[in-house]
Each structure stands twice: as structure tokens, then as C-alpha cells.
Amino acid sequence: MDYILIENSKIGKVKIKLYKEKTPRTIEKIVKALPLDVTLSRWGDELYGTIPVDAEPENAQEECEIGEVAYWLDGPAFCIMFGRTPASRGPKPRLISPGNVFGRVEGDPSVFKQFDTFKGKLLPGK
């Protein structure tokens, strides 16, 4: 599988391209758990929410690129990074503590700026 989808009634389906070489074990665990209903809260320009996945650190990092998605190890949570967060030290998004960055939103990640709370689904790609 090269991507997963995040779906919401306002934005439809958005593809998330998976970083298969960087975090294969994390991706495997997330894909096995799909489909998932998610409720994501906003923290700066990040949406995050708990998911029922238990993954170990895998190339874990705090600083991300705009548009990347991560599995936050302390959550455990699914995170969409679309701008600066309160933990940022520069222009890039930053998780409060390390996470496994496992993919990137295809298209414009600023579409997520409209949400204070995001309710939707994570789905397997086709």
C-alpha cells in the first residue's frame, strides 16, 4: 500500500503518501488497524488524536515538515502537521516529544486549518 486516506464531510478524501522505507513497522501497524474513526483536536497548526495502535520508536523525531503526518509515541496519537505548533523553534512544525513520521499529505495541507476539531475516518488506500 502506497497511501492511506483521511476522510471528512467538509474536505472529502485526502491522500497520505506513506514513507514505506522510513517507518515500515509503524505503517504496518496503522494499516492493520484501519478503518478507524478519528476525532482530532487542534494544537497550533497540528491536529492530533488517540488511535488504537501500539508502535515502538522508528526513526523518531520531533521536528517535521509542513504536511507530514506522524504517530506520536506518547499518545499514542495520529498527528497532521500543517504549520507551526507551540513547540516549534522556527518555521517548521514540531511535536512536543518524539514521534514516527510516516507519511505526507498530498495536496495542500492548509485545508486542515479550518478545523478546531476534526471528525472523520482513516481508511486504507486503494
Keywords:
single chain; globular; 126 residues; eight-stranded antiparallel barrel; 1 helix
Please sum up the structure shown.
The model has no long low-confidence stretch (mean pLDDT 97). The protein is mainly beta and 126 residues long. It has one helix and nine strands, in the order ββαβββββββ.
List the helices and strands and how they pair.
Elements: E1 3-8, E2 12-18, H1 24-33, E3 36-42, E4 46-50, E5 61-63, E6 68-72, E7 77-81, E8 94-105, E9 117-124
Antiparallel strand pairs: 1-2, 1-9, 2-8, 3-4, 3-9, 4-7, 5-8, 6-7, 6-8
Describe the structure.
The protein has 126 residues and is mainly beta. The chain is built from 1 helix and 9 strands. The chain has one domain: Cyclophilin (Beta Barrel). An 8-stranded antiparallel barrel has the order 1-2-8-6-7-4-3-9. A hairpin with a 4-residue loop joins β6 and β7. The longest helix has 10 residues. The chain is globular and about 35 Å long. The mean pLDDT is 97.
Strand content: over 45%
The major sheet is characterized as: 8 strands, antiparallel, barrel
Overall 3D shape: globular
Overall pLDDT confidence? 97
Taken in chain order, the helices and strands follow as: EEHEEEEEEE
The CATH class turns out to be Mainly Beta
Spans where pLDDT lies below 50 across 5 or more residues: none
Number-wise, the strands total: 9
Q: Compute the separation of the termini in Å.
A: 7 Å
What name does the CATH topology carry? Answer: Cyclophilin
